[in-house]
DNA sequence: TGAATAGTGTCTCTGAGACATTATTTA
DNA sequence: TAAATAATGTCTCAGAGACACTATTCA
């Protein structure tokens, strides 16, 4: 019994969803994963694998699907529970260089063990969540402007989102702080928090 | 590693979703389930457990969630992959009397191993599917009238669905057969098929 | 003819798409 | 003042809710 995790993040330079990959024992790249210890919970195994490979903690991975194809892993019969998690890129700063990489989800490379399918499912899941909630993965901090939220959601969605429609959808889901910020050289923007 | 299945059906007499329960070794009632054989696929284990306990075959169970609470099963550490399937009640005719029962999903009884939670999740899943597609679980046969479809969907949803709104939603998703039937003592109804 | 069921028409309200306009800052 | 960004206004269209009306059968 194993767990595999698609850990997604955003690189501010590249307005596109990225997935963390780790170097595997067989020299290829793949998703971080591990075998379950006896009595261990799935979420703990996910956290353990990410801590070992990317030094990230305090996650709340979500189950996606159980992959049970017997021919999936040539080393033997092993079920894998695929998970997804979203994390701001600054929390990946301490990951091991050379042993990990961030790859655009649209071009994950040739991966074994059905990992490309897991990534596709993870992206779909995250996009569905972002379509309904303002930044549920906390890619932004506690406070942000609607413009910043708009850019993050466009990057997650992988396509432009209409500006005014987006504002109308999200504004009732946010709590205004009453403060204004000028960060960009335009009219000051109102700061919001999640509710 | 185990599988458990919430097998849902409709009793024409009771316009409410029912779930199949089986008598367990400890004399209580629960969902049908089994332990996975080495190398066996999850769908095959589900089918095997339902065949043994309710004599139903040819199913396409869908994964719901993996339950991994270590204290879930007092007999030892076992993960369970919950599944859901919908089946017309006539296919349950040959199930073992005394060893099985059909219970309204709203009143599943006091179940162990978190089976009540599985049922709740299964019902939610099935209701979501029925909100978008005409009878995806094939509770009706190949041909049916919009009135029959309406009654089935109301029973699945557990609440009244507006008649004309339902028709407008479903009609473009159906293929008319061109035939009329008089089954109820009113104006003859048009027969439709799934697309 | 009346009850029961099937099928259609239409009004309103809401929400999304699309576009335009105003507001405030920096260079 | 021009460019950039933020915020708001408004027109239209599609879909859902709600209600009314017509059609056809059986008792």
Automatic annotation (TrEMBL), chains A, B:
<feature type="domain" description="NrtR DNA-binding winged helix">
    <location>
        <begin position="138"/>
        <end position="193"/>
    </location>
</feature>
<dbReference type="InterPro" id="IPR015797">
    <property type="entry name" value="NUDIX_hydrolase-like_dom_sf"/>
</dbReference>
<dbReference type="InterPro" id="IPR036388">
    <property type="entry name" value="WH-like_DNA-bd_sf"/>
</dbReference>
<protein>
    <submittedName>
        <fullName>NUDIX hydrolase</fullName>
    </submittedName>
</protein>
<dbReference type="GO" id="GO:0016787">
    <property type="term" value="F:hydrolase activity"/>
</dbReference>
<dbReference type="InterPro" id="IPR036390">
    <property type="entry name" value="WH_DNA-bd_sf"/>
</dbReference>
<dbReference type="InterPro" id="IPR054105">
    <property type="entry name" value="WHD_NrtR"/>
</dbReference>
<keyword id="KW-0378">Hydrolase</keyword>
<dbReference type="Pfam" id="PF21906">
    <property type="entry name" value="WHD_NrtR"/>
</dbReference>
